[in-house]
Write a structure and sequence with these properties.
alpha/beta, 8-stranded parallel β-barrel, 49% helix, binds flavin mononucleotide
């Protein structure tokens, strides 16, 4: 058999690349205040799929972000949204009207939203952290799932990626995008071996030169070791993996009362930055209590997240801010562009596949 061309080595075709019409099976995971037009367009332009994180944007900001992203790249990109947002239906209408190729949901989307998007030709993706969630959304008709293991950044489940992906891939017939701990070509090949059709990465894309995050924040991530993150419920009531900072240590050690006082203050600040009225915040809080089984103190804590994430990602406040992070930050030591990153990953995946092939022949 003839040696594959160097250019062929970096080409991996999967159900995901075919379904989305992208060159490489690599998704830039949604990150609030991080994955706006600049990062999403750079990831898509490099042959992956960029996702705009819209949960931290108003409807008008989302509309503007879509327009800017489409102006920066001709490649397919997507919008990530919360299915439980009060204006989810309007966001879906905007995605359809703006002809965004992909809609990805942070939680299980309602079947009628999926149907509406699919009728309009939009590819739908749902994030899941457990097999039963993957089975549920697959039955509702989503086109693909992003399954995130416990080493991932942000809100995470307890099952590690190495166990979750084979389990989910065996359970559903739609493409599974593996997430949680990926950063290189070996990881991509491992994900394919587990039955996934591609990978999604958050922390790795945050640590690129195309990411808009302030340099001191990036440096903190780069300096962290594999033990540099912690999963805590103290931030917003549900398990959240973040960089371990002095502020986080205080939060973990501090009493519930101190947490509540801080939460109330942040809720007030969030109202200020987001323009959300108290009546709307109360409505959202009641919905969270009902659907998420949360207590009022947990609901109040949830108001922490956008304010604290913004302080770090937008204002560069490493002292005050919340920095969601995957464990993988401990293995990352550079800030390539998205194009360099994706090219390096695909070249390494190609070499890795060749090496495995040699092992089989030996
Ligand atoms: C800084 C940061 C912000 C995030 N914000 C969001 C978000 O707004 N919505 C969401 O669904 N997931 C969010 N996530 C989770 C990512 O979409 C993804 O699941 C995770 O980063 C994958 O793990 P990795 O960081 O090991 O690649 C965030 C992750 C990070 C690191």
């Amino acid at each position: 058999m003839s040696e594959p061309e160097a250019s062929e080595r970096g080409v991996v075709r999967t159900a995901l690349t075919e379904r989305l019409g992208i060159r490489h099976p690599i998704v830039q995971a949604a990150m609030g205040y991080v994955s706006g037009p600049r990062l999403a367009a750079a990831a898509s332009d490099a042959g992956g799929l960029g996702l705009i994180a819209s949960a931290t944007m108003s409807l008008a900001e989302l509309d503007q972000a879509i327009e800017e992203t489409a102006g920066r790249t001709a490649a397919p990109f997507g919008v990530n949204l919360r299915a439980d947002a009060a204006d989810a239906a309007e966001r879906v209408r905007t995605i359809i009207a703006r002809r965004v190729p992909v809609a990805s949901f942070a939680q299980a989307p309602r079947p009628e939203l999926i149907a509406q998007l699919k009728d309009a030709g939009v590819v739908t993706i749902a994030s899941v952290g457990a097999r039963r969630h993957a089975e549920k959304v697959a039955a509702w008709g989503v086109d693909a799932v992003i399954a995130t293991g416990g080493e991932g950044g942000g809100h995470v489940g307890a099952v590690p990626t190495s166990l979750l992906i084979p389990q989910v891939a065996a359970a559903v017939d739609i493409p599974v995008i593996a997430a949680g701990g990926f950063f290189d070509g070996r990881g991509l090949v491992a994900a394919l071996a587990w039955g996934a059709a591609g990978i999604a990465m958050g922390t790795r894309f945050l640590l690129t030169s195309d990411s808009p995050v302030a340099d001191p924040v990036k440096q903190l991530y780069l300096a962290a070791g594999l033990d540099g993150t912690v999963v805590t419920r103290r931030v917003d009531g549900v398990p959240h993996r973040v960089l371990r900072t002095t502020m986080i240590d205080h939060l973990i050690r501090g009493g519930a009362v101190a947490g509540l006082v801080r939460s109330a203050r942040n809720a007030a600040a969030f109202r200020g930055v987001s323009g959300t009225g108290w009546r709307e915040m109360l409505r959202q809080g009641q919905a969270m209590r009902r659907e998420g089984g949360l207590t009022w103190s947990q609901v109040l804590m949830a108001a922490n997240t956008p304010v604290l994430l913004r302080a770090a990602m937008v204002d560069g406040r490493t002292d005050l801010g919340l920095m969601s992070s995957g464990q993988v930050t401990g293995l990352i030591g550079d800030l390539p562009s998205c194009a360099e990153l994706i090219e390096t990953i695909m070249a390494e995946a190609g070499r890795c596949l060749d090496r495995l092939d040699e092992t089989r022949k030996a």
